[in-house]
């Protein structure tokens, strides 16, 4: 079983790949595009109900979810509500996060 941070990192990596698909000049194949969209969407759905054990992990989770939901084309009718929920979670922890260096 993967740790939450490992799952967050995995979602970030797949979302990054989807967002940058084709930017290197290589052709975009529909099966790979579909596969990445499906993978990102399922990972977001899997992690949506999770919460970080620390403020930093919760912030990482929120960023990963927002990036993932932004990257995927899939929407089963509740995507905007889930994005708003993650934004609300982000707002709740924003003032409590330590200042970045």
TrEMBL record:
Q: Which organism is it from?
A: Bacteroides fragilis
Record-given protein name: Transcriptional regulator
Q: Which Gene3D superfamilies match?
A: UpxZ
């Amino acid at each position: 079983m993967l740790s939450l941070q490992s799952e967050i990192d995995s979602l970030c990596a797949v979302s990054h790949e989807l967002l940058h698909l084709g930017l290197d000049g290589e052709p975009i194949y529909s099966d790979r595009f579909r596969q990445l969209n499906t993978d990102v969407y399922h990972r977001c759905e899997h992690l949506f109900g999770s919460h970080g054990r620390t403020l930093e992990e919760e912030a990482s989770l929120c960023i990963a979810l927002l990036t993932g939901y932004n990257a995927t084309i899939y929407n089963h009718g509740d995507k905007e509500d889930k994005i708003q929920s993650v934004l609300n979670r982000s707002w709740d922890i924003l003032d409590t996060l330590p200042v970045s260096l």
